UniProtKB/TrEMBL annotation, chains A, B, C:
Bilayer-crossing regions: 12-31, 38-58, 70-87, 127-146, 158-178
Keyword rRNA-binding: no
Keywords: Cell membrane, Membrane, Transmembrane, Transmembrane helix
Membrane topology of the entry: Multi-pass membrane protein
The protein's name in its UniProt record: UPF0126 membrane protein
Species whose genome carries this gene: Streptomyces brasiliensis
Location of this chain's protein in the cell: Cell membrane
Family to which the UniProt record says this protein belongs: Belongs to the UPF0126 family.
Amino acid sequence: MLQPLFTPSVQHTLDVIGIFVFAISGALLAVRKNFDVFGIAVLAEVTALGGGLFRDVVIGAVPPAAFTDLGYFITPLFAALLVIFLHPHVERIQVGVNVFDAAGLGLFCVTGTTKAFAYGLNLTASAALGLATAVGGGVLRDVLANEVPSLLRWDRDLYAVPAIVGACIVVLCIHYDALTPFTSGVAVVVAFVLRLLAMRYHWRAPRAWNRRSTVTEE
Amino acid sequence: MLQPLFTPSVQHTLDVIGIFVFAISGALLAVRKNFDVFGIAVLAEVTALGGGLFRDVVIGAVPPAAFTDLGYFITPLFAALLVIFLHPHVERIQVGVNVFDAAGLGLFCVTGTTKAFAYGLNLTASAALGLATAVGGGVLRDVLANEVPSLLRWDRDLYAVPAIVGACIVVLCIHYDALTPFTSGVAVVVAFVLRLLAMRYHWRAPRAWNRRSTVTEE
Amino acid sequence: MLQPLFTPSVQHTLDVIGIFVFAISGALLAVRKNFDVFGIAVLAEVTALGGGLFRDVVIGAVPPAAFTDLGYFITPLFAALLVIFLHPHVERIQVGVNVFDAAGLGLFCVTGTTKAFAYGLNLTASAALGLATAVGGGVLRDVLANEVPSLLRWDRDLYAVPAIVGACIVVLCIHYDALTPFTSGVAVVVAFVLRLLAMRYHWRAPRAWNRRSTVTEE
């Protein structure tokens, strides 16, 4: 059995930080799409809790943590309030938001992978669910806002790869019986730094080979 | 433990009415989007059963009632048939449809909250799931029809707020041990009347404060 | 209790073939939408596994087979790789892909219905879930690609009907206690051939009656 990686209160604090920054990104998109204040709150909740909700439903951890922990539910509402009243300022510090979002990405891919493994999934499936936990909220956000998920678009900086790397480090550590708070922290930091570098240097993934032969630019 | 609010047959009748009116709204959108008869049936089913399906999967009540009760499954097909053959008439009585839809909203937010609490969720989470039960089908309908969910748009009359108020009345009643068929009925009626007033007087929610400073109208 | 229809290894091989061809269709759409290689892989996975994932979550078979069987997870990645490097050739053999997709449709509607019944759902609900298994992945594919699901559009050849017929044959066989590998195979072949005929002769479903009276062409 896996030992808890962090003390519960540390784990909870890290989760709430990740939820908060994801909620900010959902609320900002809602403002850009001209939604009303309830739409902003809904999109903040979905972005922040969607990935973990999907993971918990898939592994059978029902009711999901998103609905049993009051802090998880309140945090996105607080983020939505901040954006509603301060969004010009929040947009001005977009760089800061992106840094926090990268931290949330690193954190969620690690905790998602760990939780999936603790519920009996194999290593590959655990890594896949860790990735889904980290990126699922953002995909739901874009689907509700009626946009192509930025996760899938070629003209966005790498987002999935840092989460995949973080999740893979975790499953390698589990495989070699080396998962400790320290190695987990390393996985979080590696995913976090990779995402920061991808944003700084605009790393992008290639598209299909020989693409131009049959497909036109849209 | 909660007592059942209504006798099973009364509860079932109320549920079927709510499912029917939601299915009508899904089928009408499908006709407007030019879907074929199977698309109309699918959108009617999804709109009518989607909210309850989401709630049941989240609270672990599987298989969901939508798949175990034949009446829940047949009702949307009947609504789809009506719309396919009579949709000019159904559209002409759009006001009537809206009134029924408001009734479904009031009913589903109350029964959704009650069922979530009966499955062990805390009061806040129960209210959130009651809201999700009431509005979830409509959101799925709009996502499948490739439109921005009308729940989120600022230029639509208040829809979430009546459901939130109804769900909050239920959790307050639970908290003060006062949930009876009478108080539940009051919650249904309050949500219903609020939605009717919102449609009559075009109540809308504000958007983000100081919005125009950075965001252009779309 | 239902007997297993096929030996496990035969069943598994058939499943993997169905997953593979659905993944090809997801990956091809991703290339057309100009997604990067990770977007192509994600859309291949979602298209191939989405229908079965939905079915398993609804019937409470968690963790779903998509996450417990390594072969189910790897197969779509292989299909994505093929499309990334060979997509002009894959597109040239679109007819071949459509034939395989029809085979996957027939297979999934039968195995989906059988599995749902084995988990205790009634006959109607089992047929509905069989249909959802067969078409769910394609609907998720189109939603993520921000398009109206081709399942719902009137200008596409019949897709749901063959799956409905296949699922209905299975539940009739169950009802009359006649479900054997042979009758299941008949159901698969009937759905498969119906889909091929629908594509060959462009069978389409009608839209709502008297549609032009109030709705304009889009």
